[in-house]
Specification:
Helix content is 12%, strand content 41%. With 354 residues, the protein is mostly beta strands. The N terminus is likely disordered. It is globular, with a radius of gyration of 22 Å. Strands 1, 3, 4, 6, 7, 10, 11, 12, 13, 14, 15 and 16 form a 12-stranded mixed β-sheet that branches. Strands 2-5-9-8 form a 4-stranded antiparallel β-sheet, with no helix packed on it.
Length: 354
């Protein structure tokens, strides 16, 4: 197979390593042309769902404009190798942490092939191969397909799921490469929308510099948005979102940087009063635990965290006053203590605190 002629900015070491005790699985990514093209990216709606099962689901709606006659364009999607999860190189050439990959062009589903490319030689890995040959070599999994663009407007729909990374001080990390979009002829996205959704409750941050000038808006469900100074780094936008969606929109968007959606636990630990439950996430990776040092009142607060997380309005004034001081708390008078969606670990928290 012809070697891919594509170069995409690699993630910074701080993301790929995910600290010493974490796992970097994969980044989401834009669809890009393999060779130069006069096709422009006129519109993109990027939707990312952050789920409790450890996966993010990506749904991207593109509108491309072909300024010339009908043509076939070689296109690709690249995904970095996992680090350091111990995954053997996959002989099927498909990424071990990407699932349900699908692309349609103007309503027609496209077939694709998979290959593995060494970053040092830009050549395809051939099988059989001794996995030890790639231990210290950066490589990436590539999904390659041919797209027949008609003259004028073309619509591409791209969906997939990928496993979220995690690390020290972060319950989840959802990296996504935006910079490859500059490979299209207009070197920008003329009309760009980012939507981040959560089917339960998530508290997360995203670096603010790429999103200056336009606000994030809560367009469904319950949510809060604020800007925070995160340790010694750039300012971040923090979002608490319950069963909803936040949206950011920009015309003539210059994707000059990549993004990483990070759980807020590190920020909460270093920058806020150390209240019980300052950070809360329903996933199995993080649920607060009891300590022998906790008082009876501390235990009462902890066992009520799953209820506060869902917006319960407490009749007990002390509890209500306490949770009113927690930034992520969003009262919902319509919630009637329906515990049917409590996770196993949440039930443990409730029962152990009695």
């Amino acid at each position: 197979m012809k070697t891919l002629k594509i170069t995409i900015l690699l993630l910074a070491i701080c993301l790929t390593a995910s600290a010493n005790d974490g796992e970097y699985y994969v980044s989401g990514n834009q669809l890009v042309p393999i060779n130069d093209t006069d096709i422009s990216c006129a519109k993109e709606v990027l939707s990312i769902d952050i789920n409790d099962d450890g996966f993010a689901r990506v749904d991207v709606q593109y509108e491309f404009f072909n300024h010339g006659p009908e043509k076939v364009v070689d296109m690709g999607f690249e995904a970095n190798r996992p680090y350091p999860d111990g995954s053997e190189i996959n002989p099927s050439r498909t990424h071990p942490h990407i699932f349900d990959f699908m692309v349609t062009l103007n309503g027609e589903r496209l077939s694709y092939t998979n290959t593995i490319i060494r970053d040092d030689t830009k050549k395809e890995v051939t099988f059989p191969i001794d996995p030890s040959e790639l231990e210290d070599v950066h490589f990436f999994y590539s999904y390659v397909f041919k797209a027949r663009f008609k003259a004028g407007k073309n619509v591409i729909h791209h969906t997939y799921r990928y496993r979220m990374s995690y690390g020290i001080g972060r319950t989840f990390s959802v990296p996504y490469w935006l910079t490859p979009a500059k490979r299209w002829a207009n070197h920008q996205i003329d009309d760009f929308t980012l939507r981040i959704s959560t089917p339960s409750f998530k508290q997360f941050m995203i670096e603010a510099k790429l999103f200056k000038g336009e606000p994030f808006r809560v367009v469904s469900g319950k949510g809060k948005v604020r800007e925070v100074a995160y340790k010694d780094y750039e300012d971040h936008i923090e979002i608490a979102l319950r069963n909803g969606t936040v949206e950011w929109h920009k015309m003539n968007f210059d994707p000059s940087d990549d993004i990483d959606i990070l759980s807020s636990d590190t920020y909460s630990f270093f920058n806020e009063d150390n209240k019980l439950g300052t950070f809360y996430d329903r996933s199995d990776r993080y649920i607060p635990r009891y300590s022998m040092e906790y008082t009876k009142e501390d235990r009462r607060i902890l066992r009520n965290l799953p209820y506060a997380n869902r917006g319960y309005v407490f009749k007990d004034k002390e509890l209500q006053d306490y949770f009113n001081k927690i930034w992520w708390y969003m009262p919902d008078p319509s919630w009637k203590q329906d515990a049917s969606d409590f996770t196993k670990k949440e039930w443990e928290l409730v029962n152990e605190g009695k």
